[in-house]
Amino acid sequence: MKINLILTLLIAATFTGCIYEDGPKFSLRSKNARIINTWYIDKVYEEGVDKTDDYKSVYVNYKLDIKSDDNYDLSYKAGNLINYSESGTWKLSDDKTKLLYTPKNGKENSWTILRLKNSEFWAEMSLNNKTVKIYFKD
What we know:
alpha+beta; 3 helices; Lipocalin
């Protein structure tokens, strides 16, 4: 019985190992299952400089809801003045390294996934020719 369990865990580790720069090294949940969540900005780095306070004051109450039906909803209060909301569809790239999302009546965008755990999602994107890393928590 113990041998079967060990073999099962080894096989699972082989096929579900991490492909993300910052982990996790092993997860029993699929990448799709881990990304389906409601995410909030925790920290933001622009070109390696902490810009968390700036982003949180521009994108007040930022909420990204990635749903199991391949849809997402995004909302925040721009500058704490104007309510913004967006919805569309999402999917993972074939190699599972990017989150691809398409707003309704918009073009497809992508974020490179750096870390994907049940309660953490780290993404990197280019914004105004700058590298931005966003650390989300649920």
